[in-house]
Design brief:
459 residues, alpha/beta, four-stranded mixed sheet, 15 helices, globular
């Protein structure tokens, strides 16, 4: 990829940051001891919400304090579709919207499932905010309904390429129309799906696994067996496997035969309580803080391997990044080594990993091409973020090459996070080392509400 491509991409990336405020970050004290509570896994929480809404009884989704805006986007959309969802505190008491000030005060959601046919026509357009996961999952769910549903998102999400999603929904017989730009939000979906004798959907899985997850998670509403034929090289495998596992655990009968995924009608049977594990991907920022700021960090809530959905790579490679990981105490006290990392199943890690490798032993990140379809083109925005702090990398066909032993410097101007919460969080930690002005104030709320509060407490 040449410099011309990168420059062109840079101009496009600048567009998505319009409207985001600038925050000034001062230099933090180094060598502090810090407790780092991981937030809930939004991958698990969003899937639990959409499955519980389709059940026929009440399900409590527990452990969602500090869940972030993406999870709440799914919750709000389901409420608009007629699902009653109560916010509960740690004592199991209902918290009204007027009585809480931040989502960390909510310990659980109590979801009153509406079954297969209980969803209602929303009065207003569903707003999925910044959440690409919510967009894909809610769009396929709404495709099964016999009325028109409008879906919109924030300016960043409006610019994301979601053509694959709309193409597969159209194959089911749903009418898909766009208000402003073809294949971009806002969108209007008019179902129901499979009103004709359609029994097969061809689905490109080379950019994202989320459309495949969406079909699995909405399959309880089917009246016939449908086969999803997967096309292309699969990415984020651990995430669609999570959907597959959760669906079948709660009553689905999804069968995978080679490249075909057979979906059948079913009645979901959810447990009384679903406990949400913590988000392993967010440990990348604890590791980055340990390396950049010299903090000794007690990581709280690290999940088991099956719930880490690919992000167990962090613990596996921690010593090679120069970070000791002993009894969930993280400390940057080892010699970092060059790394060759394939992040096909964990592309959310690309930005913090790139910074750690640039400051450490360098190396190559591959299997990252699908990171181009996140909140930002995360490959290019990672390069631009590194350059803002006086570091650099080289973009390859499916990732980046990074020289090691680079030191961050004070940026000349405002550092742009391009509407991407993981870019913002990475930039914030770097800024805590050298100082900087960062565009994207509040973006951390998408995934970890207490991120800044946790770091500011130590300043």
């Amino acid at each position: 990829m040449g410099n011309e491509d990168i420059t062109s991409s840079s101009n496009h990336l600048q567009d998505v940051s319009i409207g985001h405020e600038v925050i000034t970050v001062g230099i933090s004290e180094s060598n502090k001891s810090l407790k780092w509570q991981l937030p809930p896994s939004k991958s698990h929480a969003i899937r639990a919400l959409i499955l519980a809404s389709q059940g026929e009884k009440v399900t409590i989704i527990s452990g969602i304090a500090n869940c972030g805006e993406d999870v709440n986007s799914m919750k709000k959309c389901l409420i608009q579709l007629g699902v009653k969802i109560d916010n509960l505190n740690s004592s199991g008491q209902i918290i009204s919207q007027e009585d809480f000030h931040r989502h960390s005060e909510i310990d659980s959601f109590r979801v009153h499932g509406v079954g297969k046919d209980g969803f209602l026509e929303p009065k207003y357009c569903l707003n999925v905010g910044n959440s690409g996961t919510t967009l894909r999952l809610i769009a396929v769910l709404c495709s099964r309904l016999s009325f028109t549903v409008c879906i919109d998102g924030d300016e960043t999400l409006r610019k994301r390429d979601t053509q694959v999603l709309w193409d597969c929904i159209k194959q089911s017989g749903v009418e898909v129309s766009f208000t402003n730009v073809k294949d971009r939000l806002p969108v209007r979906l008019t179902g129901p799906w499979f009103s004709d004798l359609i029994k097969e959907i061809k689905l490109d899985i080379s950019r994202s696994s989320q459309p495949l997850s969406a079909w699995m998670l909405a399959s309880s509403g089917l009246d016939q067996v449908v086969e999803i034929v997967r096309i292309g090289s699969s990415v984020s495998n651990r995430h669609w496997e999570l959907s597959y596992r959760m669906c079948n655990q709660y009553g689905s009968n999804i069968v995978i035969e080679g490249r075909n995924v057979k979906l059948s009608p079913c009645v979901l049977e959810l447990p009384n309580v679903i406990e949400i594990p913590k988000d392993a991907s967010m440990a990348s920022f604890a590791m980055l803080a340990s390396m950049c700021l010299g903090h000794q960090i007690e990581l709280i809530g690290w999940p088991g391997k099956i719930d880490s959905i690919g992000h167990e790579l962090l613990k596996k490679e921690s010593s090679n990044l120069g970070i000791s990981w002993d009894n969930n105490i993280l400390c940057f006290n080892q010699e970092p080594l060059p790394l060759d990392l394939d992040i096909t199943d964990c592309n959310d890690l690309i930005t913090p990993l790139s910074i750690m490798m640039a400051m450490g032993g360098g190396g190559v990140i591959s299997g990252a091409s699908h990171a181009s379809f996140k909140e930002s083109n995360r490959i290019r925005s990672t390069q631009l973020l590194l350059r803002s702090f006086g570091m650099d990398c080289i973009i390859n066909d499916d990732g980046i090459s990074i020289q090691g032993n680079q030191e961050p410097s004070i940026p000349d101007g405002i550092v742009d996070s391009f509407g991407d919460h993981r870019n913002f969080m990475s930039a914030y930690i770097l800024a805590s080392k050298v100082g900087a002005n960062i565009r994207g104030k509040g973006l951390h709320m998408i995934g970890d509400e207490l991120f800044i509060e946790r770091l500011e407490f130590e300043k």
